[in-house]
Q: What sequence folds into this?
């Protein structure tokens, strides 16, 4: 397996909306409609993922700021979070000697890191959404009016479990 | 404030929102249980970010499930705000090609008066075309019209209608924004759109200047809008409060209140309500009338009700046809609220009983319903 230092992660820039909010970074994926909030530590890693710096270089830059665990461990954890949230650009498909591609390698490396959530998916019921469906046993109508919440169906004018 | 315990949650909401639009806020002192009880209403009416601002420095509230949901609503509002701002820029760019400068009001433009504009969610973009260019502007925008975000039909402008609603696709997939293009502002008792345009101001947004209402016109519009909708959404009163505290030194109250005695009275009532219920503290204010005894109770009554209670109901004709046994309960649900009835009957907010106004408005609506049904 190649050393982490060989890989140069690149933050995704296409089809996302990025918003910095204090030390945090919010990212909205226009394809999946997922929003992710990067905490201060992950935000720093994200900004250094420019496709030019290697993981080792990113870790070195963050060495002084690592609190708890090594800087490299923090970087790998952040990268794992980025992969899960699909926030990295496709790593070039270069075959390694073992037949693995770099993305798999990166996934393998980061999977071994301590899993501390540095990026969290934020989904909050949209305005109206939270109260616009009917709860269990609330009065409903089958073909019009507010619908029953997921998992319930309108039977005999009440929302009942499906 | 009413002593009835049924208004406790609404009073907590009012307390949480007091001053929440400011740059620096006092931490809220409510129990985690109370926060848990009110958070669904707060989130569904768009006041989540404002409440988050009041609890973010209180660990025992911030770390609760409800507290974290409020935080997420703040984050989502910030993200969505950025996307809508991009859409707004795109709309201005599109109209710029045709030398149309739209006038933006409510929503985004009022968020600029908040200490942190990310506290104020806005779902659609309200705009007016310059005088005599409404149809033309509707035509330009309809080229970009797409399915509105509510999933409804793709709508084109209808000559003669007061407002045209578009879904506007700003080339960001999934970022379809609803645009409400208003023919005029007569609904807000502005007779001369030309004069409103002449008083409007430009504010910079990134590389562009966006035209917004003057503070005088905006305050008047927000006050009338709040009352016209029966005051059911807490953030509309926060809008008034935020603008009141951001008034420029040269703010002209006479211009804002206008010459019409009824409009003047309504604006003063809404301003007094923001001062009394949300502790707004403007630098200057006119002589404000005493609020009628029922008004604060009625606002709290609206604020304590779930979001769904304020949504448009099933058409009455369908109720008649399919659920005749529910006519009484459906009719009761359509009984107009006191604030709305007062505005609809063009009356003053005083201590006289409200039921005659409500009955009058209810009858008018019932009459127009039967007239329409007969015509069909």
A:
């Amino acid at each position: 397996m190649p050393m982490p230092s060989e890989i140069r992660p690149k933050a995704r820039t296409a089809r996302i909306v990025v918003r910095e909010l204090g030390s945090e970074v919010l990212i909205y994926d226009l394809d999946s409609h997922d929003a992710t909030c990067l905490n201060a530590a992950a935000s720093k890693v994200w900004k250094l993922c420019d496709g030019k710096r290697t993981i080792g270089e990113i870790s070195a830059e963050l060495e002084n700021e690592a609190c708890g665990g090594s800087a490299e461990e923090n970087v790998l954890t952040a990268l794992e979070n980025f992969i899960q949230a699909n926030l990295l650009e496709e790593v070039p498909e270069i075959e390694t000697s073992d037949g693995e591609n770099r993305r798999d390698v990166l996934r393998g490396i980061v999977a071994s890191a301590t899993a501390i959530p540095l990026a969290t998916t934020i989904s909050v019921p949209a305005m109206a959404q939270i109260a616009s469906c009917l709860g269990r046993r609330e009065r409903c109508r089958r073909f019009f009016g507010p619908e029953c919440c997921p998992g319930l169906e309108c039977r005999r004018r009440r929302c009942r479990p499906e | 404030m009413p002593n009835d315990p049924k208004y406790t949650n609404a009073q907590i909401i009012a307390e949480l929102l007091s001053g929440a639009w400011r740059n620096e806020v006092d931490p809220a002192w409510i129990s985690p249980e109370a926060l848990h009880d009110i958070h669904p209403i707060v989130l569904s009416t768009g006041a989540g970010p404002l409440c988050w601002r009041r609890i973010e420095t209180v660990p025992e509230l911030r770390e609760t499930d409800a507290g974290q949901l409020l935080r997420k609503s703040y984050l989502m509002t910030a993200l969505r705000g950025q996307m809508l701002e991009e859409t707004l820029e795109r709309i201005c760019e599109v109209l710029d090609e045709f030398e149309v400068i739209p006038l933006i009001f409510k929503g985004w433009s009022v968020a600029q008066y908040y200490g942190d504009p990310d506290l104020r969610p806005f779902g659609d973009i309200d705009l007016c075309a310059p005088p005599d260019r409404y149809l033309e502007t509707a035509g330009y925008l309809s080229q970009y019209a797409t399915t509105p975000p509510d999933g409804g039909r793709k709508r084109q402008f209808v000559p003669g209608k007061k407002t045209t609603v578009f879904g506007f696709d700003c080339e960001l997939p999934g970022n379809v924004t609803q645009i409400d293009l208003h023919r005029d502002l007569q609904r807000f008792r502005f007779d001369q759109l030309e004069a409103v345009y002449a008083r409007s101001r430009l504010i910079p947004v990134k590389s562009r200047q966006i035209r917004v209402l003057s503070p005088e016109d905006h305050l008047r519009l927000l006050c009338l809008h709040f009352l016209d909708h029966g005051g059911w959404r807490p953030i509309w009163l926060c809008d008034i409060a935020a603008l009141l505290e951001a008034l420029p030194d040269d703010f002209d109250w006479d211009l804002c209140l206008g010459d019409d005695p009824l409009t003047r009275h309504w604006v003063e009532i809404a301003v007094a309500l923001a001062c009394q219920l949300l502790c707004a503290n403007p630098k200057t204010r006119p002589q404000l009338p005493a609020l009628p005894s029922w008004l604060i109770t009625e606002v709290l009554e609206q604020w304590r009700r779930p979001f769904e209670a304020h949504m448009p109901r099933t058409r009455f004709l369908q109720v008649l046809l399919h659920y005749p046994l529910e006519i009484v309960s459906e009719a009761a649900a359509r009984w107009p609220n006191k604030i709305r009835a007062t505005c609809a009957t063009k009356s003053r907010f005083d201590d006289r009983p409200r039921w005659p106004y409500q009955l009058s408005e209810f009858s008018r609506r019932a009459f127009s319903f039967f007239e329409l049904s007969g015509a069909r």
